[in-house]
Design brief:
single chain; mainly alpha; 51% helix; globular; NikA-like; Mobilization protein
Amino acid sequence: MERTLDAKGRWRNRTVGFRVSEEEAKMIDRMVALSGLSKQEYILRKLMDWEVTVQGNPRVYKALKNQMQQIYGELKRLEVCSEENEELLQTIQMVAVTLNGMKEEPQHVESPEHP
């Protein structure tokens, strides 16, 4: 069993795992990439209801750029946005909030709520 100290000097030697759908995994990966955090840190913060603060860095910028390219491609393809595109709308909302937050000081970014 690997022992790792976190930033507060705690040993992190427990593993927690769970299963998700392919769509959920993709959404988690997108949200993690846009946050600039590690997947472990992002999921832990969300589970503990701690603030997720996005701080601009080259990795976040690249994730935003890639996501915007994908969104642009999808929007070009779509004529009408329907409920079936809820995942795309949530991603657009998160990217917009993140980009808006990068204009000033790092801000709290809320993830889109699932109905």
